[in-house]
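The aim of this short unit is practical: by the end, you should be able to scan a pair of folded records and say something sensible about each. We start with the first protein, listed as its amino acid sequence and then its structure tokens.
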Amino acid sequence: MPLVQVRIDDRLIHGQVVVGWRDVLKPQRIVLCSDEVANSDWQRKIYLSAVPLEIHASVLNLEETIRVLRSNEFNAERVLLLVDSPKTIVQLVEAGVAIKEVNVGGMHFKPGKNQITPFIFVDQSDIENFKILFNKNISLEGRDVPTRPPIDIASSLEFYTD
């Protein structure tokens, strides 16, 4: 299964994803990985209603996402994987899901988080999880929309000095 993008965005499915990235990535399926959304019928319905009819979508919990990505169930499709935090990416990678690069599209302000780009706010847990991904040679690109130049997250967090 070709993962055309692995994206961290705490808003998950929204306009930037289905309008901005759709034309660039041409996904055939969106996989939304979230235990919270997968366990809530009304949240699942809201997110799925935002997906254009020509794109298949799956809302899965972490365990289901690991199974699907490792089994190649969607092998014939171009898949856009959406998660809401770097911790989820670490969990996927540690469970054997092959991920080479991550797009950080939006981690918005919450109390205790500090701004590193106009659209990325992090706390210590986020930094630690980004560092784990960096140390596994996973490229970390900050870019909210495809028309903006990418930002190297590792450089922004000064991982290169360790």
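Turning to the second protein, read its sequence before its tokens, just as you did above.
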Amino acid sequence: MDDDFPLPEVDQTNKPFWDGLSEGRLLFQKCDDCNYSWLPARQECPKCLGANYTWIEASGSGVMTSWVVYHTAFIPAYKDRLPYNVAIVKLAEGPQMATNIVGETDYSNFSIDHPVELAIEKEHGVNVARFRLIGAE
């Protein structure tokens, strides 16, 4: 295992998110006061600043809203992945998250609002939420 690989810092706030992924579920927070949903995990609602929220399981479907393809490894641990993508996915339930699109090396298939589905993968012993394109040609 690469000792320099960046691993998530699990704390009291984001532990339910990482525990969910370890169980094969993608969880997000939803405010009990204003119904706003968000990722990444935080202690208060980013809309109303309320501290009452519930963890909700995502359906695993969404759309790609943005992406970039890296051809330079700004993080040395990623040099063997070049080129690789980082995408923003909007979940069907509303929250958006930074992730990777997997199983696709032809980046010409990427487009705004392209449907995606959850693909949980293990990375250096940690389950991470990634997505794959639905219906790519």
